[in-house]
Design goal:
The chain has about 150 residues and is of the alpha+beta class. The chain has one domain. Helix content is about 30%, strand content about 10%. Strands 1-2 form a two-stranded antiparallel sheet. The protein starts with about 35 loop residues before the first helix and ends with a helix.
Length: about 150
C-alpha cells in the first residue's frame, strides 16, 4: 500500500451518530431474515469448541462468543481453555482484549501448557484502545484472512 490515505467508497458516508439516509443500493444486515430455510431443517452447526469431559462442545466454531458473569467467576479462564483446545487442534483464534494485556494473555495460555510457537502461529491478539474505524477493519480483514479463520 502506498502512502495515500484510505478513502471510503463514494456510496459509503461516515457520520457521527445515527442517520436514516444510508445508501439504498441493497439489503443490510438489519433487514429481517427469511426463516424458511431454518424451518426446513437446514443443517445446524454443532458445538465443537470448549469440550466438556464427555466430549460435548459448549461453543460453536466460527461464531462470536461472549462470557458474562460476576467478577472472578473464571470467565476468562473458560474462554482461554477454549483457545487452548482450538490451537492444540491446529485452529486459529482471534482474541479481542478489553481488560488485560498481551503479557496476561500469553501468561495464562502458558499456564494452560500452550507452547509459545503455537501461541505465535495460531493466535491473533487485539488490544484496542481507540474506536474501530472502517479503514482499519478493511486492513484487518485482509491480514486475518491470510492467517486463517477463527474458531
Amino acid at each position: 500500500m502506498t502512502g495515500a490515505a484510505w478513502e471510503p467508497p463514494s456510496e459509503l458516508r461516515i457520520v457521527d451518530g445515527l442517520t436514516d439516509d444510508a445508501p439504498s443500493s441493497g439489503p443490510t444486515t438489519w433487514e429481517p431474515l427469511d426463516l424458511a430455510e431454518a424451518l426446513a431443517g437446514a443443517e445446524e452447526v454443532t458445538a465443537t469448541v470448549l469440550l466438556r469431559a464427555d466430549g460435548v462442545g459448549l461453543l460453536y466454531p466460527g461464531r462470536t462468543h461472549q462470557f458474562a458473569g460476576e467478577p472472578e467467576s473464571l470467565k476468562t479462564w473458560a474462554a482461554l481453555l477454549a483457545v487452548a483446545q482450538v490451537v492444540a487442534a491446529g485452529g486459529h483464534v482471534l482474541w479481542i482484549d478489553y481488560e488485560d494485556d498481551a503479557r496476561g494473555f500469553v501468561g495464562r495460555l502458558r499456564a494452560l501448557a500452550v507452547p509459545d510457537e503455537t501461541i505465535i502461529g495460531h493466535c491473533t491478539y487485539l488490544w484496542p484502545e481507540e474506536p474501530l474505524v472502517l479503514a482499519r477493519v478493511s486492513r484487518w480483514r485482509v491480514v486475518y484472512a491470510a492467517r486463517g479463520s477463527a474458531a
